[in-house]
Amino acid sequence: MASSPISEISMLACIFFILLVPFAAAGLALMNVGLGRSRSAGHMMMASLCALAVAALAYFVCGFAWQGSVSGAGHSLVLSGKSWNWIAAEPLFFRKFTFDGSITSLTAWFQMMCVGLAALIPLGSGADRWRLRAICLSTGMLAAVTYPLFAHWVWGGGWLAQLGVNYGIGRGFLDAGGAGTIQVVGGLTALAVTWILGPRRGKYAADGMAPAIPGHNSVLVLFGCILALIGWTGINSAGAVLFTGAEASAAPLIAINTMLSAAASALSAAFITKVRFGKPDASLTANGWVGGLVASSASCAFVSPAEALVIGSIAGTVITFSIEWFELKMEVDDPGGSISVHAVGGICGLLALGVFGQFQRPVMNVAADSVAAATNVTAAGQWLAQLIGVATLLGFVLPVTYGANLLLNRFYPYRVSIEGERQGMDLHELGAGAYPEFVTHTDEFLPR
Amino acid sequence: MKAVGFLMLLAGWFLVLSAIVLFAAPALRGGFVCVGIAVEAVGMVLAFRAHLIPREDRR
Lengths: 448, 59
What we know:
The complex is a heterodimer of chains A (448) and B (59). With 448 residues, chain A is an all-alpha fold.
């Protein structure tokens, strides 16, 4: 397989950045556990491990074959004389693959981590009611089909990356750290799964009330935020080097932007909840923190620190209201806030790149493999490219994900039985609780 | 309503794709893309409304 050249220092830096990515997965897993009920904590951690495992296997079997890389083979349609590369055509099982430290081999490794991260996102939404085997099925579908397809369009030289080369729309769709490819794809999968599962019992009462079901361990949630920061710094840095051609020396700017965006977003969420409820809300502040990380991903290498601060503030504000809007107005029961944090936060980040993105230095869109993009230093049209990417996520990824999960749900029902939900996922599915010394509270299931 | 919502999401996306292929002028192309996104927004509203919980199913 042909590979693009990469300097030795960039290769070593990339290896270091990719090694940080599992911290993001650990952070998300801990947050999902803490925001769920204590009687499903062990199940959630087990589901996180299984999702990572299934995602890695599915990506190995066919995910990478359909995602491919810029220098790899692909299937193209020709529309009005322009090539629309829509899916890669690599061999299955990583056959004919050279693990030589090239961009292609680093991309494969990085993506195997990222697809696992995307698979963890829906777990927060389906907490306390999503069966383990159904999680594995849904994850397999995400890692084998949905994720690779969109990732090919953005990072594998697909039609979204080529919008700049083919149609002069900015530099094509840009997403350095996976705000769209990882976060929005995961967040929309979370929305589809939540719609299919329905709310937890007791969440929406007959009298129209929607009582809060608080998470059981805010310490886990807040510690998960710190781990997520480490992981996100790795994701954003590795993604910027691999997919936008940034030098390894851009890492300090990327890390600072990531941190500032998360900080501004978390403080915005804390301020808003303090003003509205009298005290800052720990779970919403944690969601704001991760939302800031998500929003920073797309533009981490293309904005100044001050702009990252603005992006984080906007994301934190939007996410805080979005969580309440989904829960109370749209009746979407999302215990982990995954839809707002990852889908809404990711879309904020993608659009922010179109608005704030600076291309003062030549930035090669590696995904489009375009010299023209490297020499074009104006930002004209970038907002339109970002808008087209968001439209593709909402108009293609969401319906396909929903349809595929609905089909899987027909063959293997996603939702646990009433008895299982009452008992708790730990005892029902694993046969043992995560905290055997705890007293189990069952009062929320008393007849109303 | 659910099926119509998801079909409108797809229809909006096809409008966006059509805008890329059919129009070269940036203003026209941008306008058409915005129309496609507006159609997607209507599709999202329908999809959300279709998933509201019926009163008899609340427990």
